[in-house]
Amino acid sequence: MRRAFNTLVVALFALLFASIAVTYTEQQTLPQLAAGYVKLIPEELGAPNVITGILLTYRGFDTLGEVAVLFMVAAGLGLVLGDSTRRRDAVPAESGAIVPSTELVRNGAAILFPLISIFAAYIIMNGHLSAGGGFQGGAIIASSVMLLLLANPEYLVDHDFLGVTESLAGVLYVLTGIAGLIFAGGFLDSRMLPLGQFGAFFSAGAIPIISVLLGIKVGCELSVIIDRFRG
Amino acid sequence: MSNLPISNIVLATGFILVLIGLWGILTHRNILRIIIGFSLIDTGIHIVIVSIGYVTNGTAPIIDRALSPSEAPSRAVDPIPSALVVTAIVIGMAVTAIMLAYAIRLYKSKKTLSIDAFTESKW
Question: Given A107, A180, B57, B122, which is the most exposed site by the fewest CB atoms within 10 A?
């Protein structure tokens, strides 16, 4: 009975999806809005990467909201999983059987950690020039923290440091947005700084600055989220 | 077969992933497997959104040596679905994290991850 119902539901969805997939015709030209973005972002913002231009300037306010969602998740996990400082004291007593990782694993992680961090910085700083940006680089930072936690389970993540850094990046992000309101056309308008030479490292106005702040904020938030799951 | 548009193939792949995830959610009784099903649906929808943004013979909307600003509007793919998917990936990850946290709490309360043990909120 249950199996038949499941099969029916999935089959109906499959029918619906199949009709969409078969009748869908590929776009031959860009829609008007997209063509406008592709034309305007290199011209007005001086950013070669159109997607970064959309995310950080034209839809910058949405990105700010998205970072707020990440912050709420980090805070919500603290609420759901309980106070991490109290739990940390309780862990050694109940799970004394944790075998410390070998020297090889710990040294390997110690060598890889700075390399991954440099890669993350590269991804963040090239967000306006090539594929990359704050979110992607922040995720790579968090992955390096994850590596540290896996290689050395006793490693204590400094929550105070992460919290202060993250809040600071958030405040600076909002201040950058307000500066855009004062010195340029609107909230988070990246044209408040000179656009510079197209394709150069320091170009595209305030987009690299916003990208760095976003990367730091996302990296801290994701690190906190990962650390919360350690139990 | 060779003239099948690539966006239809990718669209179908995304839909198949969604169906696999849906099947997983409906048939499995373990909460962790249900969460994995959710993640599969998530990924499938991302693939569907990206495939909708594809323009025939388009390339990534990044202006560089391979794509001059003048020919970009005719050769670049739609950047809006790509920007949307960056957002969707982050939100999907946040939702997965919240689901896993609740799974941990549920396990602590009943010492099992089977959905059959949680009958209080069943209507």
Answer: B122
CA angle, residues B50, B53, B57, in degrees to nearest 5: 110
Chain B residues 46-85 within an 8 A CB cutoff of chain A: 52-56, 60-64, 69, 72-74, 76, 78-80, 82-83
Answer whether B29 touches A (CB < 8 Å): no
pLDDT at residue A169, as a whole number: 86
Judge whether B34 and B24 are in contact, CB under 8 Å.
yes
CB contact under 8 A, A76 and B19: no
Q: Where are the domains of chain B?
A: 6-58+69-117
Is A7 inside any structural domain?
no
The CATH number of the structural domain formed by B6-58+69-117 is 1.10.287.3510
Q: What is the pLDDT of residues A122-169, one digit of tens each?
A: 888 887 777 888 888 888 988 998 888 888 777 777 778 888 888 888
Q: Which two tokens stand for residue A95?
A: 């799970």
pTM of the model: 0.82
Taking an 8 Å cut-off on Cβ atoms, the answer to whether B54 and A131 are in contact is no
Nearest CA in chain B to A23: B8
